[in-house]
Amino acid sequence: MHHKDIARSAPLRGYVRTLREQELPLLRDHLLRLGPHSRHDRFNGFLDDSFIERYAAKCASDGTLVVAYLEDGVVRGAAELHSPERSPDGLPEIAFSVEAVVRRRGVGSSLFQRLIAEARLKGYGALRITTSAENQAMRALAGKFGAQLNFVRGESTGIIDLKPPSQLELVKLAIAAPADSLRAAINLNRVYWKAVLRMYGWGRAA
Ligand SMILES: CC(C)(COP(=O)(O)OP(=O)(O)OC[C@H]1O[C@@H](n2cnc3c(N)ncnc32)[C@H](O)[C@@H]1OP(=O)(O)O)[C@@H](O)C(=O)NCCC(=O)NCCS
Do residues 111 and 24 both lie within one domain? Predict the structure, then answer.
């Protein structure tokens, strides 16, 4: 087995958490480690270090929330939640970057999940994601979280709806639930009703 394959199949050692404001230099270091291709995908063509340094400094000063994947105190992946005031249509913009050494192992998905939780806590109803039309990886990741991407001038842009699930969706989820958890819910119901009936003296065996 090639050493790269061993690294790919090794379990991930890190974890996902939100960065504190004073930790934001870790975002800069992570973005500077991205190679030219990733920088192109992430920043739509901007490649030089000075651009990334200015970008990271701006994130640190304008209240951007950063969810990070950390290994041994080093940020290897990041999801950014930009404040809605910076966006032309008032929708908060999100962006993702995962270093090549840990890609395709679910880091992007974990960051996305945590970012959605943070956005819900902030009370946002929807998020906007923009990526280049040929960015297969980001399009797959965004699609996984329900974004419908539309193409405008070589860019694909999509909206992630954060509204709570409707009653109908909850019913669909219950129907799709694995048999065991459905059975557990039914059993719990039975115990509850037995207790209620006992309380009223109707549940006793004659
Ligand atoms: C986009 C990016 C963040 C994905 O990170 P990741 O950690 O590899 O993502 P995941 O492992 O969670 O993969 C998510 C889904 O996308 C799919 N995917 C990932 N890379 C892919 C690729 N190169 N081609 C096709 N699909 C891909 C995976 O199959 C996965 O789906 P699955 O869970 O059903 O298998 C990463 O490739 C990256 O940082 N790219 C450079 C920066 C960039 O393009 N940012 C986007 C601009 S906002």
Answer: yes
